Amino acid sequence: MEEAARLMYELFKNLGAWLVSGDQWTGPDGIAHRLAEHLQYSLLATLVAAAIALPVGLLIGHTGRGAFLAINLASFGRALPTVGLVVLVFLASGLSMWPVYIALVALAVPAIVTNTYAGMTAVDPDVKDAARGQGMRWHQVLFQVELPLALPLIMTGLRLALIQVVATATIAAYVSFGGLGRYVFDGLAQRDLVQVLGGAVLVAAVAVVLDLALSALQRFLFLPHSRLRSSGGTPTRTA
């Protein structure tokens, strides 16, 4: 037990020294550069996934058509092995970032589609009927009534998708590209446990920081509306 505790202490001591080393943060292989690459892969993939999934989720949520197909396709997307998809696209397209981006987008789409659809279907039908009764056209009902009410769940879907993508973007290193996964794969190849743990800790830290930031943004954006709904009141003008 004492020997194991000593080895763990040495391991975490070396990990701490690796993380705070000035040399480790500079240069093309430094943490700052790898972090920028990782964020680039993650944010771009999430934006592309949102551009695909948001219209689909809004459409099926508004019309009620195609829900069964869309939800089952989303479930199929969750079941896809990410590394297997990377290898498949890699064999078809050659050495490029396309396999990584396709795999990350495929990973992010299901969470966005399902949460967007859930947010749209959660809108009270009486609210939509009242909007139509006031003469609002379908696109006005969609963008001025349904979408604002569904935004909290849509934001949750975007948040979940981004965190999943950040955690999985390490696969870029699997096909010889950058990102924080470079430390994990290089460390495994070199049998450098400190480097492997360093990469894993950095990925986890980025995921946690982004999750907390998006959670804070979501509360900031929607807390006033939730208070208004819970009070059952409406804004009033004061003279």
From TrEMBL:
Keyword Membrane: yes
Organism: Streptomyces avermitilis (strain ATCC 31267 / DSM 46492 / JCM 5070 / NBRC 14893 / NCIMB 12804 / NRRL 8165 / MA-4680)
Highest taxon of the lineage: Bacteria
ABC transmembrane type-1 domain location: 35-218
Protein name: ABC transporter permease
Annotated family: Belongs to the binding-protein-dependent transport system permease family.
Keyword Transmembrane helix belongs to the record: yes
Main subcellular localisation: membrane
